[in-house]
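Sequence in, structure out. Go.
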Amino acid sequence: MKRTLLLAALATFLGTLLAHSQPSADDLAKFVAGLPAKDPELAALQKESWWTSYSTELDKKWAKMDQRQLAHVRAWAQGNAEISRASGTVYYMFSGPDFLYARTFFPNASTYILCGTEPVGSVPDIAKMPPGNIAGDLNNLRKALDTMLTTHYFITKDMRVDLTRGYIGGTLPLLFVFLEKSGCTINAVNFSGPSVEIDFRSPSGKSQSLYYFKTDLSNGGANGAFLSFCKRHGPGVSLLKSASYLMHESGFSTIRNFILANSTLIVQDDSGIPFRDFDSRRWNVKLYGAYDGPIDLFSKYNQPDLAAAFQRSRAGDLGFAFGYAWQVQKGLLIEATPK
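Output:
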């Protein structure tokens, strides 16, 4: 009798597991990216009007942004020999969750290392959440993406508000959106303290890795382990965009010196490393676009030496917005390679 009851209980337990198995990381990512998921419970949720509205709106904004901005970035990067050859590690300091531009500039990299002060966050088993909570969290995610899809950078304080209200929060859902919308397939997601590793396949089938670390890059921050990790994966190419001019301050000299010492190529706007630090005896520098000085919020970081350099020697037009100004004609890019 006891054996019969035990077998019946086991059968019930196994039936429950079969009735609802945890969706794969790739299915969860597709769901939050507004793309069809294979998991049957997520597929059922995708028939709801709130999800179809979310998916349709995200698709429209993404397509518009890709046509206006990313298509031009891709074309420019493919026509630049130094950038198109990059196949190792990409350092993207002060990136927050902006995997989008790291991948658009350097699609053939093996490893992407991103960091910011925003927490990793999570994407839970969505199928177990009340539908009203899912709809609300996706709405917050859409709001967090609005500035990036309208301009080309995040406003950190707004993003923190939008992504700390629900269960789907932090940088992870944004990374999921960028990966899936770029045509990638997620193989595994591994958490380690304040960091996450995402192993994925590119549309061409290449295996690649994305790391995001929550860390303070100031001189007083506890970032020693992070920089040691970066060095083990280096040297690499560095991308710096909309970095709040932090490395223009003495309190961020450690990360500035790390990038200069461990980069085979640096691609940045004027908010990254100060132009004065690219000593002509040690660096070859190419300037693209136009420099009209920083936006009003960062007016104290005007660089007369950079303005003079643009007057003397400019490699060419850019054709897309890059930097804090969202207008195409104000885009500027600095490309530096060590001699």
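Check: DSSP finds twelve helices and nine strands in the chain. The longest helix spans residues 49-78.
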